[in-house]
Amino acid sequence: MQINSQASQLHSQGAAVLPSQHAVSSISTAGESRTQKQPESPENEIQGVDRSATGAKVKTDQVPAKPQDIKNPIDDPSSAEYAQIKELAARDREVRAHEQAHLGAAGQYATGGASFSFQSGPDGQHYAVGGEVGIDVSAIADDPEATIAKMQVIQRAASAPAEPSGQDMRVAANAAQVAAAARAELASAAFEESQVATEEAASQQAPEETPAPLSSNAKTATQSYHDQQQSADQQQTPELFRSAA
Q: Are 10 and 2 in contact (CB under 8 A)?
C-alpha cells in the first residue's frame, strides 16, 4: 500500500515513475481478474458456431425423405396391365403377319386389302386381334384349265400363314372342289374328243352307226363343273380368309 501511495504522489508531482515490480504485479492481478470476466475467445466463438451448424445439420437429417414416385402400371413388369399389353402386342403382330401372308400368296385373286378388328389396351393403344382378306374362288367360265390354275393359287394362299385358321381351311377345301370339277370337265371333254375321233375313223370304214352315249361318270363330271360355274355367277360375295380368334 505504501508503494502505491508513493507512486501516486510522484505521479501527481509530474515525475515519470516506472511502476515497481509490485505495482506491475498488482496491475497484472487486476488484469487477470478482468480477463476471467471477458467473453470467450474468438476461437471459442468459432467453435460455438460450428456446434450450432452441427446442430442445424442434425435437424436437417431429421426431415422425412420425399416418397418415391409411384410407377405407372403399364411400365411395371410385375403388373397385370403390363402383361396384358405384351399379350395384345404379340397378338397384333401375329394377326397382321397372318393376313399379309394371305395377301402375298393370293395376288390378283384377293378382292381387297386386309381388314382388322381392334381391342384397346390399358395404354390406350388399339391392337389388332382379328382380321380377314376377301378372296375370289369362282370358276373361270368355259376355261377349266384356267380354273384349275386359279384354284391352286387359292389353296396356296389359304395355307400360307404359319397357322391357318378353320375358315382358311374351309376356303382351301372349297377351292379343291372347284378344281376337281374343272378336272372332271377336262376329262369329259377329252373323252368326247376321243369318241368323235373314233366315230370319224369308223365312219370311213363302215356304215354310219349311232354314236355311243357318254358314260355316266363323264356326264356327272360335266354337270358338276357347270354347276360350279352357275353357283359362282349367282353368288358374287367372295370367300374370306380369316385369322383364328
A: no
